[in-house]
Design goal:
Layout: H1 4-10, E1 18-23, H2 35-43, E2 46-49, H3 57-62, E3 68-69, H4 74-81, E4 86-90, H5 97-109, E5 116-121, H6 130-144, H7 153-173, H8 176-198, H9 207-220, H10 223-226, H11 234-249, H12 264-277, H13 290-303, H14 308-329
Parallel strand pairs: 1-4, 1-5, 2-3, 2-4
Length: 334
Amino acid sequence: MNTTDHTADHGAEAAPGRIVLLTTSHRVAPGLLSWPAWRALHAADLVLCADGAHPQLPYLREAGVAVAEAAPSAEELLDACAGGRTVVVVATGEGEPALTDGLARLAGSGRVSMPELELLPASYDLPGARLLDLVQVMDRIRAECPWSSRQTHEGLAKYAIEEAYELVESIEAGDRGELREELGDVLLQVVFHARIAEDDDEEPFSVDDVAGGIVAKLIHRHPHVFGDASATTPEEVREQWLRMKAVEKQRASVTDGIPLGQPALALAAKLASRARTAGLTVPLPDRQDIGYTLLALATEAESQGTDPEAALRAAARTYRDAIKKAEQNNPETP
């Protein structure tokens, strides 16, 4: 890029001009730019971009914006702005750190008259945009990783269970950092399974199908939010949800849909909850056995609004601490 002529023509007393650093998000379709961005591009005296393969360039040129492929230094950019000219720099994915650092050094030197500097986001991420990154990363891993490319739903099932337990543990521990990490691990399981499902020969589906399905379900089951229904208390919302779910599922029994492979205490509490919600009075089996004693305790906990699994885990943690204390008091114990 030759800026010598600009320096000679305008000199030290010339108006310093304006530099606009235009940033875009790769998570937004190219060409979808804000109105201030289009206005700045069309009004600029010069538009530069260091990346000739930048996804925005074809759309800018189609809109009549002339873009020069150049990577000017900070000094060259100041020369290009001399005489009150406006230069727009379409930033690459890295954000032009070398250029911005150079401009900062010149501004800090106090030896030059700096142009007006503006950072203009031409497109920016909406909430949830990083989920697109996760889908893209998972797609590449599935294609290129020797381990991930061979995984199946059945092979990954145990990891989903483990991650769910670790999520619960982070919630009960109250560790916000762990909670964020474990939520990510659970999310990974969803995206991983959805990516595997894309490869199915008979019934393929994608993560978009998964998301679309749950969005439709949430909207349908929240008519008090998205429709004309009324529900002003949590209890009314729950009753409405259960009614709609019953119509959707058309189950022959209130026990249908309860996974029997879940932890036993949780299973017992879920069965008791379904029976109570359906208004059924079902006496517990009258047997003198530890299993039936635990069943009675689980149903009693559920009727009192207590999660028996969480209660037992809390008690177990207290017991664990007592064991550790006993070990400290008896260091010779094997």
